[in-house]
Amino acid sequence: MKQILCALLLLMSPAMLAEEPEKRLFDEPIEYFEAALLPSLSLSEAAEIITTLRGFHLRADSHPGFHEKYEPSEWGIYLNVAVRDPEEISAFKDATTTKEQITTRTVEFPAPKNEQVALRIVFAYGKEAPEKALEAIRASIKNIIVASGHETAGKQR
Predict the structure, then answer these.
(1) Confidence of residue 4 (pLDDT cuts 50, 70, 90)
(2) Distances (CA, A) of 156 to 25, 95, 138, 150
(3) What is the mean pLDDT of residues 63-85?
(4) What DSSP string runs through the chain?
């Protein structure tokens, strides 16, 4: 009996390993920002990435500005990428506001068909933030917009 069970397990194992679950658009949102991480971290005096259960936060700033957890200084960057429940985000949104020296862009992606998660990106930065890091983050956001099929909606950046 043990031999039959072992043989059955050996036959099933390769088939089980070959079948990977289909990857969904927002399964690993940090992957979209890989090219932005190094410039963001290396061009600032203080920086950190904090992963969360459903996304991540990136903070990069000068030392005085780094004391504010969610608000960058005029030299800083704050990026919050969060997977959300589909009920929270019903439509694609790409909005930018500027208040004093800080620009905040919020991009929301509804859950794609047959998926059960949506995505919200909040990207705030000061007018003196490192341009190379800003360009890399903007390119990452644009890649998500294209991958989600919303490239014709909202403003192109």
Answers:
(1) low
(2) 20, 11, 10, 10
(3) 88
(4) -HHHHHHHHHHHHHHHHH-PPPPPTTS-GGGGGHHHHHHHHHTSSEEEEEEETTEEEEEEE-TTGGGSSS---TT-EEEEEEEE-GGG--S-EEEEEEETTEEEEEEEEPPPTT---EEEEEEEEETTS-HHHHHHHHHHHHHHHHHHT-TTSS---
